[in-house]
Specification:
By secondary structure, this protein is mainly α. The chain folds into two domains: 7-51; 54-95. 62% of the residues lie in helices and 0% in strands. The protein is built from five helices and no strands. The protein has helices spanning 7-18, 23-30, 34-44, 54-73, 83-91. The protein is elongated, with a radius of gyration of 21 Å. The relative contact order is 0.08.
Length: 97
């Protein structure tokens, strides 16, 4: 019979692992199978790129575009930025909505 764990418990285990606690220690301390913990890491882990929500990804793209614009306009980098390449990156697939 499989054990039911709350979402809060699962997230706590994931946070403990992300803070540096090895899976084997979590297995011993909490009595959860290591395969179960690895599944939770995939579902709830913040360190995995595929766990970034679409909204978070769009926000990161927007922030990157704003950063690149500020960098391009900065007096410190004048002459160091290839304008054509810069414009290509801003209009490329990374910035399409």
């Amino acid at each position: 019979m499989s054990q039911k764990y709350t979402k809060e418990f699962k997230e706590t285990i994931v946070q403990l692992h992300e803070a540096g606690q090895p899976v084997l220690d979590l297995v011993k301390e909490y009595g959860v199978a290591n395969q179960t913990i690895y599944k939770w890491l995939q579902l709830y882990g913040k360190s995995k790129a595929e766990n970034v929500s679409l909204h978070e990804l769009q926000q990161m793209r927007k922030e990157m575009a704003q950063f690149l614009i500020k960098l391009y306009q900065s007096d410190e980098v004048v002459g160091l930025v290839d304008v054509k390449n810069f414009e290509f990156h801003l209009s490329g697939p990374l910035f399409n909505h």
